[in-house]
Amino acid sequence: MGDQVKLSADGADLEYPVLKGSVGPEVIDIRKLYGQTGKFTFDPGFTSTASCESALTYIDGGEGVLLHRGYPIGQLAESSSFMEVSYLLLNGELPSQDELSNFEYTISRHTMIHEQLRHFYQGFRRDAHPMAIMCGIVGALSAFYHDSTDITDPEQRKIASHRLIAKMPTIAAAAYKYSVGQPMLYPDNNLSYTGNFLRMTFGVPAEEYEVIPAVEKAMDRIFILHADHEQNASTSTVRLAGSSGANPFACIAAGIACLWGPAHGGANEACLNMLREIGTPDRIPHYIERAKDKNDPFRLMGFGHRVYKNYDPRATVMQSTVREVFEALNVQDPLFETAMRLEEIALNDPYFIEKKLFPNVDFYSGVVLSAIGFPTDMFTVLFALARTVGWVAQWNEMISDPGQRIGRPRQLYTGPTQRDYVPLSQR
Ligand code: ACO
To answer: Does the record bear Secreted in its keywords (predicted)?
Structure first.
């Protein structure tokens, strides 16, 4: 018998098994607690709760470590490609050359969206936030691909996963094109996954679009950095939505909705807006004071993380990617200097040191995406595009688990106790 944790409740001594993962904190299996004690645990925000078992991604927040299927994010960002990382997340192992070529071919054959789906865009206002469009269009995929919504069929799950990964760049680029009033471009499957996305976003039918290799590489790396991140809010949303048996397209639309929030994926947009508001380094101290003021809702966007109590390893890669893109495009952005100075000041401030607040992946991503040419409101869309891989991999893992049950949290009820209805005339 493995380790047990003892709990005394109402005079009775109860024992709960301790489960060990391959690495990371052990977990106390309290599944029998309610049945034995009639009591729930209380953990809003899931600060001490493992919501599932997973073999995909591991984070050691104290050490600033992020592993996908065991491989450090720094190595993947340096040497791999987004397609290879996608294969790894979906299948558990790095692909052979043949496996990678087949996977890339399969994904490239699913890049087109149903012609009727293109008309959906016309229903949105031109100034609609592209994340609003993403929620709608991705949810609408459920209405177009009925042949891959039977979640009990592994083959259909696989096809749905490939469709989502393949169509996301097309859908995201079309959302951008709609907002700027340019014609949507059809995918070009001769290009790489990322090259095709750049072309669909920045190309126009009147001209040949030339993909700049350095930008393509940087963009691909940014996708790798966002591919998966354990049980974050949007991934947990996808899992919870999927736990009811909802189809994958609906589940990913739910994930997109959750990602949109400024405490999550929306932080990259909020961070660049913040840097613009700060403007020059001399104004930083004022904003640092605001971030520390409990009576001021202002927070340093792109700073702090529920899990990382050390430098987010993705932020390190992102910072060097900024330099690469600036060099390739021969541009400079004074906001990068402001961001670096802000980081330096914050990392030397007792408030941020004590609370272990470090830059997260979003701190530098806005600067680099802006240099590539994306408007601010597209930033979170790019995050959604990349995270789709993680979402579908996590969703598949959950659905494949024979012990999978609907996610159904309980609560600490604080409302009125039972009382009798009072007719309107007597109120
Ligand atoms: N600026 C100033 N203070 C902060 C910040 C910040 N960015 N982040 C956390 N704090 C403070 C809080 O005020 C709190 O102080 P207290 O203990 O005195 O009350 C303490 O640090 C802990 O913060 P919580 O909000 O309790 O931490 P939580 O784990 O719930 O939130 C979160 C994490 C949402 C990321 C938070 O740090 C934040 O809002 N950061 C800014 C938004 C952001 O960058 N989000 C992106 C996250 S990464 C991603 O989704 C890709």
So the answer is: no
Nearest CA to ligand 1 atom 19: 294
The CATH code of the domain that includes 120 is 1.10.580.10
305 catalytic? Reply is: yes
Residue 216 lies in a domain: yes
Number of folded domains in the chain? 1
Judge whether 67 lies within some domain. yes
pLDDT at 254: 98
**Residue 99 pLDDT > 70:** yes
What is the residue range of 46's domain?
Answer: 42-411
- Strands ordered across the beta sheet of 65-68: 57-60, 65-68, 71-72
How many whole angstroms from 155 Cα to the centroid of ligand 1? Answer: 41
Q: 314 in a domain, yes or no?
A: yes
71-88 per-position pLDDT tens digit: 999 999 999 999 999 999
Q: Average pLDDT, stretch 288-296?
A: 96
What phi, psi does 196 have (nearest 5°)? -60, -40
Residue among 362, 377, 401, 420 flagged as catalytic: 362
Residue 383 lies in a domain: yes
Distance from Cα 225 to the centre of ligand 1, integer Å: 20
This prediction has a pTM of 0.94
Residue bearing tokens 């961001």 = 339
